[in-house]
Write a structure and sequence with these properties.
This protein has 2 helices and 4 strands, in the order αββαββ. The chain is of the alpha+beta class. It has a domain of 72 residues. Helix 1 packs antiparallel against helix 2. Pfam families: MafI2. InterPro entries: MafI2-like.
Amino acid sequence: MDSALNNLIISCHYALLGAIPYKLRGLAVKLENETLYWKGYFNGEPTDDEIEMLSVACTEVLADFPHIKDCEEEYINHKFPLKMDKLQFWAFLRWEDNEHDEIG
């Protein structure tokens, strides 16, 4: 793993301290072609306050990397047991008991 990616992961973790909403299942992040992709998966519809909290964290990450020119934030209702796409890395991933997944 290169140092730029390590720095991005550390920045994400620092920005998310105290900013993880209860319903957040996972936050996937990817940096590609000077664009930061920031995708939050919620177990239920995210509230405006939850979106705002994660958007502020995203802005804190952007402030650490002036070479990032664009950002795409997405916050979706993606209830368990639906599978989530990791993008490049998980900035946050909640443990989920997969033993009780529905088969089919």
